[in-house]
Automatic annotation (TrEMBL):
Rod shape-determining protein MreC beta-barrel core domain ranges (all copies): 117-264
Keyword Membrane: yes
Family annotation (NCBIfam families): PRK13922.9-3
Pfam families, per the entry: MreC
Protein name: Cell shape-determining protein MreC
Alphabetical UniProt keywords: Cell shape, Membrane, Transmembrane, Transmembrane helix
Entry similarity comment: Belongs to the MreC family.
Amino acid sequence: MRNLLEFFIKYNYCFVFTLLEIIAFVLLFRSNHYQQSIFLTSANEITGKIYELSENVTSYFNLKMANRELLERNMWLEQQVSVLEKTLKRNSNMDSLTINIVKQSALNDYEIFKANVINNSLHLANNYLTLDQGASGGIRPDMGVVGGNGIVGIVYKTSPNYSLVISILNSKSNISCKIKNSDYFGYLQWEPGDSRYAYLKDFPRHAEVNLGDTVITSGHSTMFPEGIIVGTVNETSDSKDGLSYLLKVKLTTDFGNVSEVRIIARNEQNEILELEQNSKK
């Protein structure tokens, strides 16, 4: 306490000077409209800059949430567009009510779970991803996994809190895909090498296909609904036996930058798989 008093006594002139300066500025800005307007303008500008900086910081930290919402919205929109296009082809005389019913039912058969990628391999012959959601969160094998730019893979194994996913970049991966606006389909497989490309095999030779065509999931499996984007046709060639096309597909998913995904579960998946397994006995 004594030291504090000595400090104030020692620098009392500075404190008095500062106090008088503050009083002088208050009197100046209160008594003169010109100085008052300059002060208020400057204060408003500084406050505006502070608010702008605060908003930029807040927006930056909200980007992750915005990306999550966009990922979910993109997946729903892709599925709705695919279903609507297919339905409109069958019946061009539908009224608006029917169209809305079809739109709402686009993903009624599926349940969607959020997950984050905590491990990912790219350069092996058989690549896998590890997700931070497992059996305790409702995840089970054979569920489809989708990222913000397209399909990622299929759930292979689960533990209570984690899931192992067979990436598209895996020689065991075999996903039914087709060209958008066409019912002809083939099977997407990856050949070890470039993580940007995979191959659509057994695609019918009588089907029309052009470079740049969009490749989507066909819906001919329990893992993925129809219409989720896979990539674009980059190159066409004949298969080894000459009976079908071999399409080189540039994948829309950047597997070196996959962080958040959605796991898709078809509600009747177990029933369908059980029926198919019994038919093979």
